[in-house]
Design brief:
single chain, alpha+beta, three-stranded antiparallel beta sheet, 39% helix, globular, disordered C terminus
């Protein structure tokens, strides 16, 4: 005779309450098919485990709070260029952007500057504690504090403008290291909401999402670069912050020509003498914040930049040499 397991007996007892003493259909099924609850529990556990595995694949790697991080190809490109903030922004459509080293970037959208990069770095920082694609919530005031901008009306507007600018983008990174994920396009901020749709008043908490595809760009040791956040915030925004990210992405930094810096940072300066002045000022700033131990511009044409890092902690462990 088939015996009833304990869970089935409990449900049967609860179900027999229809006035006739007859078991309810569910209870009858449990009597006929003992163990069904256990099998259901096992299936649920497997389903939960599968969801957790998928979520784990969408989580960014760990880095300490004092750092911010981006894929190295981005720090080595003019995706976030270092042009003067007063220069007019242009709209680019499927524009191929130079990368210093392996990889290729294709971008559609309004051209991005170093202040946009600061905003994206902080948004990625907020997103990294949960699977990418999850909703990120924050107050504008706390965000401005984190990026070192004053809490003024102009800063609130500037923050929203940066977010909206990156929402209307399409970014592709082509690299051998990405395998089949190479070249997949995504918006840099697929979703951003800052005001009530009906009242048009600013929300108390802004919301945003980042594309799950972004996690693949951080995949693998040596493929993303950490920058010391306090150092970056202490630098003048422009060529100094661009060089900060670029030199952090190499361990140790290679000598680099002034013309390569100009192209990599997206500068429009033509005269070599002017370019040299800009870079010299930026190198002094990098030394001031103790990112560089020393620097020199050498070579027959005084166009080869040679630097020595004061610290190598910014590069993700086991990065490129």
């Amino acid at each position: 005779m088939r015996t009833m397991d304990r869970d089935s007996e409990v449900l049967l007892t609860a179900a027999v309450a229809n006035g006739t003493g007859e078991p309810a259909p569910l209870a009858e099924a449990l009597v006929k098919f003992p163990g069904v609850l256990e099998r259901a529990a096992e299936a649920k556990a497997k389903s939960v485990a599968k969801v957790e595995e998928v979520d784990a694949q969408r989580v960014l790697p760990f880095w300490p709070e004092q750092f911010r991080a981006l894929p190295s190809e981005i720090f080595r490109s003019p995706l976030f260029n270092a042009r003067n903030k007063r220069s007019k922004r242009e709209y680019m459509k499927e524009r191929e952007i130079v990368v210093i080293g392996p990889g290729r970037v294709t971008y559609t959208g309004e051209d991005l500057r170093q202040d946009d990069e600061t905003v994206w770095l902080q948004l990625i920082q907020l997103a990294k504690s949960q699977p990418l694609g999850s909703l990120i919530q924050f107050t504008a005031g706390s965000f401005l504090k984190a990026i070192g901008w004053p809490r003024t009306k102009e800063s609130y507007q500037r923050l929203r403008t940066c977010m909206i600018r990156m929402q209307a983008t399409s970014l592709q990174i082509v690299a051998t290291r990405l395998g089949k994920e190479s070249g997949k396009a995504f918006s840099m901020i697929p979703e951003f909401e800052w005001q009530d749709a009906e009242t048009k008043k600013p929300l108390r908490r802004y919301t945003a999402r980042l594309a799950p595809a972004l996690v693949k760009l951080f995949d693998g040791k040596g493929y993303f670069t950490r920058v010391e956040w306090a150092q970056r915030l202490d630098l003048p925004v422009g060529i100094a912050t661009w060089l900060h990210g670029y030199f952090a992405s190499h361990n140790p930094p290679y000598p680099i020509k002034l013309e390569t810096i100009r192209d990599g940072a997206g500068l429009t300066t033509v005269r070599l003498a002017h370019l040299r002045e800009l870079v010299e000022d930026a190198l002094d700033e990098l030394k001031r914040v103790k990112f560089l131990a020393s620097w020199q511009i050498d070579g027959p044409n005084k166009d080869l930049v040679i630097v020595e890092r004061a610290t190598v902690a910014a590069l993700e462990p086991e990065g490129d040499e």
